[in-house]
Amino acid sequence: MRKHITPHDRNRRHHRGFAWPKLVGALIALPLVGAVCAALLGTVALLLANDRLPSIDALVEYRPKVPLRIYTADGQLIGEFGEERRSVVHIADVPPVLRNAILAAEDARFFEHSGVDIVGIARAAVTNVVSGGREQGASTITMQVARNFFLSSEKTYTRKIYEILLALRIEESLSKQQILEVYINQIFLGKRAYGFASAAQVYFGKPISALSAAEAAMLAGLPKAPSLFNPLVNPKRATERQHYILRRMYEIGVLSEPQYRDALEEKLRYAASAREDTLQAPYVAEMARALTHEMFHEDTYTAGLKVYTTVLSEDQRAANAAVKNGVIDYDRKYGYRGPEAYVELSSDPQRAEDQIDDAVSDAADVDDFLAAVVLEASPQSVKVTRGRGAIIEIRGDGLKFAAAALRDRLPAAKRIRRGSVVRITESKPAEWEIAQVPEVEAALVACNTDDGSVRAMVGGFDFRHNKFNRATQAWRQPGSSFKPFIYSSALEKGFMTTTIINDAPISIDPALTGGQAWDPKNYDGKYDGPLPLRQALAKSKNMVSIRVLQAIGPRYAQDYITRFGFDAARHPAYLTMALGAGAVTPWQMAGAYSVFANGGYRVEPYLISQITDSDGRLLAQAHPGHAGDEGLRVIDARNAFIMNSLLREVVRAGTATRAQSLHRGDLAGKTGTTNDSHDAWFAGYQPTIAAITWVGFDQPRKLGSRETGGGLALPIWMAYMAKALKGVPERSMPPPPGVVDWDGDWYYEETLPGQGIASLGLVE
Known about the structure:
By secondary structure, the chain is an alpha+beta fold.
């Protein structure tokens, strides 16, 4: 008989007979089902993500953004323009020590994995758990390349999936060597440096081929966190990171124990401490940048253009020193002006420290003149700080220049006291003095007289303080340095060097000046009566120049000076032109004086010799004219020869005799001092080099009642020329056909004594 089973019995059998095994099976199956579902969902997600991945064509056809670089003619880097400092290096040129440091720091199994390092991830996890930190990461170099090229920096699971997929795709498309090369050139390493070649220069001032193991490890520590591990900002953390990388290099066998120990003990020298070794030519670099941008527009700062200027590094150094010393000498002659500003320092040390930091930052360093705040001051000692608690005490000779400002009886605004913002400069290593930033400015431009190639250019005392280029942009009155062009035009009208002109007071009608009645004077207030033209120019006699211009006609002279490159509109046809009342730039004057130096040819000054792309292919090249090309002749060879003899007389027996201390017989030129001594000039040359120097204030004002071009600008010119002409043999200008020597002076054949204006005796 079959037994009837009630619901109660069914439930009991279910529990006793097969309920537990099914439950256990279900429980066992759940993770498997979950894993399968997760795998399916992950696969779908990966497929969807894979379809949305960006193209890696930009990586396969890698074209890094390389900044514009400006070089001297002899290959020294003087300027770099672009948001990213980068020097591209091929993987074959990366030294093993740097490659090993990078791999030890970022991805020791780089050549073993396929873009994602499962072993590395596991090892990093274990290491971080054991160490309780995050010393080791799990991103491979390939993943970092994927992230840097194609992804944002947000930390999400989605981005990580994309990063992994991109890494796998990159590994399929590029070789390991190509991936590593991209990484080495692309990664950001702080201080606007992208890539290790650029970072080696930025941090250590050397190519990657010269890096030691210690230096390579320091650079290899930067990708993880460029600001955190910047050795110039956070030396302690940077060193800890460097030591970790060196230890890893030792552990994986790329450093022996002695090499490891030596690297740990090596004291690193950073490029920032060797600034004096870097050639400073900011005005040259900026002008070259602007000219390049006119040609290449938006590609200028990313295409890796290399601009080679005509500037010679040693000439530029000489010009820098000459201008700097000339400006400082003038400034110190007129004494200390007093503190730049005052800060009421708080009694709260932290608040005072913030005030000091703000004051130093606001003042900003100018060249070697560093901003500092006075903490204590007495006639015997001044204590200053530049912030961060460091105190510098200045005593003895360091106080001499500012001694008058330490007297108690001075008004508070002129006295050095607690809270004064002053300038300090290092007179000798670890020896400081109180100084001040000069207010006067100066400029120098020098070029080869054969083709106009610029050898050196300085546009002001400090480019960072004021970027205005006075060598090319400052239109100033040339004063007496313009007289030679009037004399040259007079030679074309029949005047000779022995023509007698009356050096006597003169009164000029307003119609001849373009303004009011004019009663000009000689600079020294003295008049020598009848003088030959040669002597009149040597002594820079104003009355003679005016009479010469009056005789030949201002209109004629205005037209004639355009032969030298001057703009007629800037030199109105009035008698005031005789004293240089028009406007010129030092750049213009360099080209103009070259005409006298090279025998009568106009060669335009130029700065850029050639421009290449990053691979050295020529993109643009200068094609300058050369002296000797008769198509460039602007004045008669005889005129140039006689003018040269007149300008040599200025050095031999005139207002520039100071230049005789250079002990050369081939120097020529002309001093220039404008009305009220607002501008001081010396324009001169040796037959192969023309150089122009100018001194003045940006907002014209009197340089001093007794200041002249011979006293201010000539010493700068001499300091430059002493270096530029070192080892250069003396060179004389041979007389051209058509001139004859008569009784110790030179004449055109057709104007020998007894003929023409030379025989008139006196020009009234």
